[in-house]
Fold this sequence. Notes:
This protein is α/β, with parallel strands linked by helices. It has helices at 13-21, 50-53, 92-99, 129-149, 152-156, 163-173, 181-191, 202-216, 231-239, 250-261, 284-301, 306-317, 352-359, 361-365, and strands spanning 2-6, 38-47, 63-65, 68-77, 104-110, 219-224, 244-247, 265-266, 275-276, 320-326, 344-347, 367-372, 378-379, 390-395.
Amino acid sequence: MQVGIVGKPNAGKSTFFSAATLTAVPIANYPFTTIKPNHGISYLRTKCVCKGLGVVDSPRNSKCVDGERFIPVELIDLPGLVPGAWEGRGLGNQFLDEVRKADALIHVVDASGSTDSEGKLVPAGSHDPVEDVRFLERELEMWMFQILRREWEKISRQPDLTSDEVASAIADRLSGTGVKRSHVEEGLRMAGLSGRPSAWSKEDLIRLVGFLRGFSKPVLLAGNKVDLPTSPANVEKLKQLDALSVPVSAEAELALRRAVERKLIQYKPGDRDFSVSEGSGLTPEQLAALEMIRLRVLRPAGTTGVQDCINAAFLRLLNMIIVYPVEDPEHLTDHSGNILPDALLVSRGTTMGELASRIHTELGERFLYGVNARGGMRLGETYELKDGDVVSIVSSAQRR
């Protein structure tokens, strides 16, 4: 699963991406700083099951710090989007080609209202960030509409199309955007569309695409620059929209992570505060800057919001859970003796059989049953995994 970082120029996308991944990307105060998509690894933060099970774990695919698991996830920082991208304006074609790959989007919005719709500087508070949310929705929907419209006359004029055939044809046409057959079926129902598709208007199709966009590219709003005086009122406006919204200061998070890299402070992404390392040698100016982050961001907002966005994108937008596969359910180890070696993100509803196939194709093909490590109960192939499950898989190959 991949999450794309989107938004207009100068909203703070690259700062957010750098803060989340510590990847060096150009950060400057002018439009189109990001001209090529940057890919990076960030970490989802969650309570590890190790303390509840009374063990000290030895992770392979993730990190465990003081009982907190940090699980790697992929982020993509996309070029800045301006109105008219679906028509090829700005870097629109490149943006829309890359956004196909994202399963969900974090829309970094300038909550201070100090940049216009094209990312140019304007007096703070003079631009309504709700307009930025609406324009992103419009750009994505018109992009998807254009793809569907190219073949629509051919599709809609086929005689005696059943409702199933219509749904399949639309899903096939939009498959490259992440739209699934189940999305189309639900979208048609919500749009109230039935009967002969040749009778559907352009407005009908755009309304349908609006629902499909919401299903296939769910969006989280990151209300950035919360430390600025004009931001709090706009953050409240963003919370009133029909979307998940998180107040953010990407700049504060980046400053804290860089201070950690230099061993100046103790801080983990998502913490509510930091502490100055003993003997750090911070100058009075540096201490004042850190205290400003504490006063303007951490105390009023609770966190910088960056880690909250990453967690929410995967756990809420994409509805994923975390499971811990082990080979030895009694000792909670793999074949090398590593305790709780892997923490895997899987979609809610994933079954034991599907998990086995994900770990290894042959393991899925020879699946016999699973074992719940917490009580030793056998789990069938269709058992739906729960968040925090620790499971072992038994296959016919192991029985030889």
